[in-house]
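Fill-in record for Adenylosuccinate synthetase.
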Amino acid sequence: MPARVVVGVQWGDEGKGKIIDILASRADVVVRSQGGNNAGHTVENGGEVYKLQLIPSGILYPDTLCLLGSGVVINPKGILGEIDGLEARGVSCKNLRIDPRAHVIMPWHLEIDGLSEKMRGKGEIGTTKKGIGPCYMDKAERSGLRIYDLIHPDLFAQKARAAGELKNRLITGYYGGQPLDLDAVIAEYTVYGKRLAQYAADVSVLAYRAIRENKEVLFEGAQGTLLDIDYGTYPFVTSSHPVSGGVCVGSGVGPTLIDEVVGAAKAYTTRVGAGPFPTELLDETGDEIRNRGHEFGTVTGRPRRCGWFDAVIMRHSVRINGLTALAINKIDTLSGMGPLKVCTAYRKSDGTILRDFPATIEELAECSPVYEELDGFDGDLSGCRSFDELPESCKKYIAELERLCECPITMVGVGPSREQNLERI
Ligand code: GDP
Ligand code: IMO
Ligand code: MG
């Protein structure tokens, strides 16, 4: 049985949660390897909508083991709120495990995220203000607090006080903000630690054992390839590695143990937050996609920027993630929109044609998209239950995307629920 990775291949929100939920019907284990509650993964099942931020999207299956690897950053209050919310709806979280190496998002991380965005002014990244960047900064600087610390009250009190004192100096002295009450923070987080202790377990060991026992293991990516700290549109990115390589580091599983890498994409492109977006539509077509696709952020509620499908980005993602297959969601949103444009390459200001996504945003700024126009399709696609039921021009659109992306498209989404996913072999 395979170990399969699902990654976002655009700027996040590609429908990863839905794909994971569908694949999880056959999986024994679902693992998150990076990111934190900046992610918002929507799962629709039986008319119920679940918006998951930290808990893996396999949680709706009562026997599926759900793991948060060492590369994930944990907001204790956030995860406990999610657990309580799910359990109140009858979804048990008893199969959740968190790696003791995972770093903890502390209140000063949230504070600094907000203050540093304010300081960036017009150059802001448009972060989710969940403290993600500042938490990963401390991890890289080797001064962060980990789940192991959080669940050991004495160790935690000592480390949190030392870290908090330093952060208060930074918050007041550099950012001109208000200091945090460290006694209150330590008291509050000690209670969270006591509740979270039951979930701590070595995720690398659990995931490895499951793979060795021939169980089906799914790795659930968060964010998307273009938000990767190295391979995205730096600095308008998140602070982790949403690419498939991040799975190995963030869950402690070596690359030879992974069999398949599925990329989740939309049939068009969206982005939430600042940064370059070559195929962005700042006209009524962009508004139409946003309204038809309900393109508003799951976490922040911000309107998502919308644009045409970009095959240059897709080829970048196919390469970097080593994709074996693509799942294209939201084809239903494009129905009735008339002719559809697809970006096949970029043209630089000197006229040169680029097939590969540039390495820097400075080079990207010199590029404009080269479009191919394809026939649109009409009708309500949301009731289609097999690929063959799709209109001919829709099938042609998908076949052309497949050719341009240089990767097989094996799934097509016509709606948000489990049954609205068409398998295409
Ligand atoms: P994720 O972060 O990648 O899991 O994606 P989000 O949940 O943030 O955003 C994807 C949105 O699209 C959610 O509201 C999904 O319910 C919805 N969705 C996923 N696939 C489809 C699809 O094929 N058609 C439509 N109409 N909506 C979809
Ligand atoms: P899912 O998993 C879309 C974006 C933010 C911002 C940038 C940095 O639901 O696809 P951060 O708070 O991470 O420091 O913000 O990254 N971003 C996302 N955009 N989907 C996400 O997650 C995102 N997680 C972060 O909007 O531009
Ligand atoms: Mg999302």
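KEY FINDING: DSSP finds 13 helices and 19 strands in the chain.
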